[in-house]
# Entry
Amino acid sequence: MWRKICAFILKIFGWKGVGEVVPEKKCIILGAPHTSIWDFPISYLYYTSIGGKGRIMVKKEFFFWPMGPILRKLGAIPVDRKNPTALMVSIIHEMNKCDTFHLCLSPEGTRKPMKRWKTGFHLIAKEANIPVYLGYFDWSKKEVSRGEKFDITDDAKADIASIQLIYENMHIGAKHPEKYITG
# Structure
């Protein structure tokens, strides 16, 4: 029932979902360009409407009553961003506790303009031996997708440069274009 409700809300907002749930039990789904707080609700509605359950990382400071239980229900995992190594270990630990774990995150790491994308997703994917998908939300077309699979290598910098080029060539419209830097 929740799946149908999410699909209905997405449609009311004028969005079209593209693609199906990722076939792998565990993966990382990138979401770009991330320039608005509204990227999360759109992504959540989309992935839930196609039968998926995405997990996201949220600052542990947001897990106070009543927000904590709500965030957990929506698939949020509390994280301490002050220690990147501990964050990566805790995410992999969470993955290992579940049969299915689709981690959705922004490669930019923030809604601010970022020329250099974060490498955390790459480290997690390599360490956990899971695939990466190039999800997107295109505000100009109102189209959202989990995207295509990207085979990562041992060279994080080269992979991130390739991923940024792929996104650039997709000509995706950000909600706030001035906050999205490509290449």
